[in-house]
Amino acid sequence: MEPGSREADWETLRELARDAMSRAYAPYSGFPVGVAALVDDGRTVTGCNVENASYGLGLCAECGLVSQLQNTGGGRLTHFTCVDGRGEILVPCGRCRQLLYEFGGPGLLVETPAGILPLSEMLPQAFGPENLTK
Ligand code: THU
After folding, report:
1. Could you tell me which residue ranges the CMP/dCMP-type deaminase domain spans (predicted)?
2. Which of 10, 22, 66, 99 has a CA between 20 and 30 Å from the CA of residue 119?
3. What CATH number is given to the structural domain containing 62?
4. Residue 76 belongs to a domain
């Protein structure tokens, strides 16, 4: 999926996130989540949350997404969306903003209930790979 018509792209990305959400494993929270992102080479990657009987070990949907990104050739995330069990736009949790920062950096565009925002506005003064090489 190329970033041509912005509106169409976000709608398509949201549909991919909803599809992933339909496969979530969330028996403990009852809160399925799906995510989808566009990669700079045109690929799309998705994820759903996968919980665990040991509650604290549950994996957010973004964990699956970054794992798929790396395991299908790497690259940089450019556009990201997250939906809840009703398919409505959801903000990514704090830990997941950090996961996204690693592979998208401050310029990653994130769809939020308040509109499309760069990740730099959702994770200000982020700690990232560049801090380790200074
Ligand atoms: N969750 C995600 O998968 N991603 C987020 O960004 C927000 C929270 C999941 C974790 C847990 O399985 C459920 O939503 C309720 O917190």
Report:
1. 8-130
2. 22
3. 3.40.140.10
4. yes
Atom of ligand 1 nearest to the CA of 63: 3
pTM over 0.85: yes
Predicted confidence at residue 1, as pLDDT, reads: 47
Question: How much of the chain exceeds pLDDT 90, in percent?
Answer: 93
**Ligand 1 centre from 51 Cα, in Å?**
9
Q: Containing domain of residue 56, as a range?
A: 10-123
The answer as to whether 68 is a domain residue is: yes
Terminal alpha carbon distance of the chain: 36
CB of 33 sitting under 6 A from ligand 1: yes
Kindly state whether residue 83 falls inside one of the protein's structural domains: yes
Quote the number of domains for the chain.
Answer: 1
Catalytic annotation present for 62: yes
Q: Which tens digit of pLDDT belongs to each residue from 47-105?
A: 999 999 999 999 999 999 999 999 999 999 999 999 999 999 999 999 999 999 999 99
Nearest CA to ligand 1 atom 11: 60
| Residue 100 maps to a domain | yes
User: Distance, CA 108 to ligand 1 centroid (Å)?
Assistant: 20
Is the CB of 87 inside a 6 Å radius of any atom of ligand 1? no
Specify whether the CB–CB gap between 20 and 55 falls below 8 A: no
